[in-house]
């Protein structure tokens, strides 16, 4: 098949889920500070992707979780799953590895050189219980989170694959662009909550965050992009949902104009060596427009979107 398309993510039903929206307002997919505790600190000792290290890692994980969980590896990922071997294999080889391969080909130059552990739980009870046991995480985000210190993604996979790709993007960009600012880290990761796989690319599609922007346009409360770029409280209650939505749709706007790859690579380059890159200047360079004109085009485009 010349054009492989796989629609994944949090689709239309999430727009109507009151419970989902309430969960989002409590924190969504926010990056969680690392709090690895107890036995899970041993994860940090598995520092390469050699067969010997992977075998030791799998033995360790089986000891921690027991035989009721299925463990499988396709470097750099090691999955620990409450699902069957067949289902876990499908998640690994039909979703996660194609995603990693495409992201590495299109965006990332530096790839993970250490194992990334993905914990796939089947519902909130196990997700919360194990999160508390391993990390002391008593109030986790509803869908999942990435623990950078322990190189671990923790997911309630019953909520869908969109959040898994969101968190996996955080894990991958952590290697390629370690100084990535929060607004772009979250906007870029959020882009893949709902996306389509093509033979040589992955494209974001409209998702449940669009109504947040429509409401802001209606109420004249859309934020200036520069305010988001400079906001030290990206996750603050006042603007969190809007920050996520505008950052995601800025990434989508760039992607639809075939400028996202160029922007990402220029942003990463200008941020090397501890330098603080100016996203406004980079956007002007990449688009060939004055920033005010670019932002006006972005806002007009948002107004034209229909879901």
Task: Explain what you see.
This protein is of the alpha/beta class and 307 residues long. It has 2 domains: 7-196, Glutaredoxin; 208-304, no CATH class. Helices cover 50% and strands 11% of the residues. It contains 13 helices and 8 strands. The protein has helices spanning 12-15, 18-26, 51-65, 85-106, 124-135, 162-176, 182-191, 210-218, 225-230, 240-256, 260-270, 279-287, 291-304, and strands spanning 7-9, 70-74, 77-81, 116-121, 144-147, 152-156, 194-197, 202-204. A 5-stranded mixed sheet has the order 2-3-4-6-5, with helices on both faces. α4 links the parallel β3 and β4. It is globular. Residues 1-28 have low confidence and may be disordered.
**CATH homologous superfamily of the largest domain?**
Collagenase ColT, N-terminal domain
Pattern of helices and strands: EHHHEEHEHEEHHEEHHHHHH
Q: At the first level of CATH, what is the class of the largest domain?
A: Alpha Beta
Report the average pLDDT across residues.
Answer: 89
CATH-derived architecture of the largest domain: 3-Layer(aba) Sandwich
Write down how many β-strands occur, each being a DSSP E stretch of 2 or more residues.
8
Number of helices: 13
């Amino acid at each position: 098949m010349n054009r492989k398309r796989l629609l994944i993510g949090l689709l239309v039903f999430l727009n109507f889920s009151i419970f989902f929206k309430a969960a989002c307002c409590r924190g969504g997919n926010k990056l969680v500070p690392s709090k690895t505790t107890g036995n899970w600190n041993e994860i940090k000792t598995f520092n390469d992707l050699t067969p010997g290290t992977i075998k030791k890692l799998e033995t360790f994980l089986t000891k921690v979780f027991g035989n009721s969980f299925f463990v499988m590896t396709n470097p750099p990922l090691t999955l620990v799953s409450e699902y069957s071997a067949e289902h876990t294999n499908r998640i690994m080889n039909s979703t996660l590895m194609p995603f990693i391969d495409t992201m590495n080909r299109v965006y990332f130059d530096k790839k993970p050189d250490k194992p990334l552990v993905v914990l796939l739980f089947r519902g909130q009870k196990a997700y919360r219980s194990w999160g508390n046991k391993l990390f002391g995480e008593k109030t986790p985000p509803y869908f999942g989170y990435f623990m950078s210190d322990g190189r671990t993604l923790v997911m309630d996979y019953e909520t869908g694959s969109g959040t898994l790709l969101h968190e996996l993007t955080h894990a991958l960009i952590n290697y390629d662009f370690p100084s990535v600012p929060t607004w772009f880290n979250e906007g870029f990761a959020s882009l893949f909550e709902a996306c389509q796989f093509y033979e040589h690319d992955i494209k974001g599609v409209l998702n449940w965050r669009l109504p947040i922007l429509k409401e802001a346009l209606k109420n004249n409360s859309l934020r200036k992009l520069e305010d988001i770029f400079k906001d030290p409280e990206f996750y603050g209650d006042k603007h969190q949902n809007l920050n996520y939505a505008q950052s995601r749709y800025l990434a989508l706007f760039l992607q639809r104009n075939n400028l996202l790859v160029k922007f990402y690579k220029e942003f990463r380059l200008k941020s090397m060596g501890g330098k603080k890159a100016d996203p406004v200047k980079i956007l002007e360079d990449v688009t060939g427009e004055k920033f005010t004109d670019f932002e006006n085009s972005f806002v007009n485009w948002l107004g034209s979107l229909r879901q």
